[in-house]
Design a protein that fits this description.
Elements lengths: L1 E5 L7 H8 L5 E7 L8 E6 L3 H11 L3 E2 L2 E2 L1 E5 L3
Antiparallel strand pairs: 1-3, 1-6, 2-3, 4-5
């Protein structure tokens, strides 16, 4: 299941993101999408979890204030 994270700093450390997300479940991959506004990239985190678990992870992360930014998390239903 893929989660889309926004609100992270454009220079976010992908290895650190992978490590932090691994607390919620197995991380299969992390990708940065810089199309559009390069100061506001999306981070796609593919996790080996169910839709229900991904929904709960997104709910827990969404709205967290981290390093002077508010994070947003959604699950990607397609892709």
């Amino acid at each position: 299941m893929k989660l889309i994270l926004s609100g992270l700093h454009p220079d976010a450390d992908l290895d650190a993101l992978r490590e932090r997300m691994s607390h919620f479940g197995p991380v299969l991959g992390v990708e940065v999408i810089r199309d559009g506004d390069p100061d506001r990239p999306w981070f796609v985190v593919e996790m080996g979890v169910s839709v229900a678990d991904a929904t709960e992870i997104a709910r827990r992360i969404d709205g967290i204030y981290y390093k002077d930014r508010t994070l947003h998390a959604r699950i990607m239903l397609h892709g």
